[in-house]
Design a protein that fits this description.
The complex is a heterotetramer, with two copies of chain A and two copies of chain B. By secondary structure, chain A is of the alpha/beta class. Chain A has helices at residues 8-12, 33-42, 61-66, 84-91, 102-114, 177-183, and strands at 3-5, 20-23, 47-50, 70-75, 96-99, 118-121, 135-138, 141-146, 151-161, 167-168, 184-194, 214-217. Helices cover 22% and strands 29% of the residues of chain A. Chain B has four helices and 14 strands. In chain B, the strands form two sheets. In chain B, strands 1, 2, 3, 4, 5, 6, 9, 11, 12, 13 and 14 form an eleven-stranded mixed β-sheet that branches. A three-stranded mixed β-sheet of chain B has the order 8-7-10, with no helix packed on it. The chains are: A alpha/beta, B alpha/beta.
């Protein structure tokens, strides 16, 4: 049942220790900073976090990692010039890393939302990221078996929501939002604007409200 | 308290009304072709139900009439329909991802047979000369959180359609959670088939018609029943 | 390389005998009647056709079937009150049928476009449509292995195209268009309107031009 | 005709210009982070090239400057970019479907090493204390119709980066079709490594630098070479 929630604190209040949390965004674009800050304030810990990166600078996901709340990162690109908090935790052996090629990350998230139990992809075949994985020769090439990534919660950022929870995004900030919304049991969205139902053209809705549980407007 | 809630069997419209009343507010629902479509006539605005049609839409409105008819806006039964505020369109893979990913709260389907363990047979008579056609039935049966079946309890020959094992080709295995019939509402769960209410017959009379062991539904044990 | 073509006849002229042709549409909505008529006129035969249905009445795909041009149908719902041409060919043993649950049809087409070599789905498990197929227990349920459906050509209908081949559709006529455009080696689109590049909002493009090869405006 | 087309090795910009010139009109192209990004400076309007960025866009324009900068519009290197007319946005799974489904005509990538059979190593030094990060490199390497590599031919220590077998961890197997270096352009095909042109060295001098057998490119045999 869709809820419109007044504060980011209330929106993330139900996230339990040990949860798998998908966090939208590619770099800073589409990263739901206010929801992440609220998650940090909530004290939830022992989290598995799914994001393309592993935090930048001293904000958002980077702080969650710094504070030791993240047990495991599932991501494609943890190492950046300003990923010092992840780097430190990783080198200290205090955080687990599942490194996933970005397309496999996206497709595995999509598979979870679409009810696909696993799929074969050529990406990664013959590399160390496919070591120990089942491979088959299909469509004229070797392909690796990959499984869906499900989550308890998704935290994403959109531009607008209507009263039915339908979402539209803005430019490349769309990135992982739509597929994470579908892959998580409970999807929490921060938006810049809530518009009346009927104000979004049904042809242009990107995430239908069926994938959205909680919406909070962030100034 | 007797579980007989009507002195007569329910007609199709009364049954549709009952199904509609049982759908939780805010649910996302897919109504199959035929009898299940009648349910939409009894959904109230307060229920705030969103209807899905597998050919690519959420927020489907009532059947289109007169000038509303638009060949580009049809439902899965290829009937012209209308669009409600808050609707959305998507392509077929995205539409079936909604169904197959377990995002629909309820789908309501017709059936030839339902087994005591929730197997569904509703797509093929198995007749050797029949041209098979399945459409989205298997995806709905397997994907929705709850699968409600609407059917008459008995065939024209008086045989029960609620059976121990389906003799017709299956649509899905162990997928049906409730069966709404003219004579009773059945709840199918891991511990067997319970009868929530009967129409025009007593529980004992019902049991004589149905070749699977039935148990009257005990509300206190409701937590153990799938779909409640 | 994208081409704007003047007539449907020229648009379909390259379709060879023996091709696999995806045809968009669900019922009549989104069915590219003019392209199908042109395909009939072209004389191409021995075709494998992928469509949700197997033709209605005495038009479009139904005529292609009637004229004996279709060797095999891959579809989910051939039997309709007015599918008499398919029914006759099928009962005479003159057409092959691969019956696919509609969601598997959509996902298999999507897989072809997305480079997925195969996937597991619960749909169909335990039914006669999964007989002989490999099954695995994944994510808590039995799932069936399904393979992509590739095509030589897709014939689809959209509302508008811009100069880059970007497409938008109209209401439920969208249906199979976007996934078929991606799954075929060569995608031919009939549109009602061609608009200048830049006239479509990049947020609202449904099929990016990368999936489109030939565009023909149909009055 | 000599295949030496320049008296000096090519600088990064000259090499980028050469790659740009080799991209067929109307192509859909993904330019990797770093040196490959320079290629965009030399694409002409007449070429009508559409650039893809894996974070969800086709029709990417040049880097954004000043007031054009918009945090919601970045490329895969997280640099602010601009939007060209005819652009489109899509989510990450749709974006990688473009790459993985074989729809990009060309991607241009940097590399640590390329093998004689087109294996690519460009994501990981293999150093035990390195934090691995792969991004979309494996998807691009495996998915694009043609994979062009841009790199210096030699390491700082003078070792050839075109090798018999990669010693660095692989990004993809048998995926590279062309290698653009400061000293030569190599075409990799089923029948080995051919040299299309050399810069600042003769074919014979080049062969002394590279530990894999080279063959001068014969235009008449071009049909047998992948990527032409």
């Amino acid at each position: 049942m869709l809820k419109f929630i007044d504060t980011v604190g209330e929106a993330v209040a139900g996230i339990k220790d040990g949860s798998t949390v998908m966090i939208g965004g590619f770099g800073n674009a589409g990263q739901p900073f206010e929801l992440i800050d609220a998650l940090l304030d909530s004290g939830a810990t022992d989290l598995t976090v799914v994001n393309n990166n592993a935090g930048q600078g001293d904000q958002g996901l980077a702080l969650l990692i710094k504070e030791g709340r993240v047990r495991k990162m599932i991501c494609s690109f943890p190492r950046q010039s300003d990923s010092w908090h992840f780097d430190a935790k990783y080198k200290a052996g205090e955080i687990e890393l599942e490194l996933v090629p970005q397309g496999n990350l996206a497709e595995r998230i999509r598979a979870a939302g679409a009810g696909i139990g696993g799929f074969f992809t050529p990406t990664g075949y013959g590399t160390m990221l496919a070591e120990g994985k089942h491979a088959r020769f299909l469509d004229g090439k070797w392909q690796v078996f990959e499984t869906p990534i499900h989550a308890d919660v998704a935290l994403i950022k959109a531009l607008k929501a209507d009263g039915k929870g339908n979402l539209v995004y803005r430019k490349t900030a769309r990135n992982f939002g739509p597929i994470m919304a579908a892959a998580a049991k409970h999807t929490i969205v921060q938006v810049s604007e809530i518009v009346p139902t009927g104000a979004l053209d049904p042809e242009n809705v990107v995430t239908p409200g069926i994938y959205v549980n909680s919406i909070v407007k962030v100034a | 308290m007797s579980i007989q809630t009507s002195t007569t069997p329910l007609g199709r419209d009364d049954l549709a009304q009952l199904v509609a009343r049982d759908i939780a507010p805010g649910s996302f629902v897919n109504l199959g072709i035929g009898q299940p479509t009648l349910v939409s006539n009894y959904l109230t605005e307060e229920q705030n139900i969103t209807l899905h049609t597998e050919n690519g839409m959420l927020g489907m409105g009532p059947e289109a009439k007169g000038e509303e008819i638009d060949g580009d806006l049809i439902n899965a039964g290829k009937i012209p329909v209308t669009e409600l505020p808050g609707a959305s369109y998507f392509h077929h893979a995205d539409s079936f991802a909604i169904m197959r990913g377990g995002h629909l709260d309820i789908c309501v389907l017709g059936a030839f047979q339902v087994s005591a363990t929730g197997d569904l047979a509703n797509w093929h008579t198995g007749a050797p000369d029949a041209i098979p056609a399945v459409g989205g039935a298997m995806d709905l049966a397997t994907g929705a959180k709850d699968v409600f079946v609407m059917m008459t309890l008995l065939t024209r020959d008086g045989a029960s359609k609620l059976v121990d094992t389906c003799s017709y080709p299956l649509t899905g295995v162990g997928c049906v959670t409730r069966v709404y019939t003219d004579k009773a509402v059945f709840l199918i769960g891991p511990d067997g088939v319970r009868v929530r209410e009967t129409f025009g017959c007593t529980f004992e009379e019902l049991q004589t018609l149905v070749p699977v062991p039935l148990v009257p539904f005990d509300e206190k044990a409701a937590g153990a029943v799938v779909g409640l």
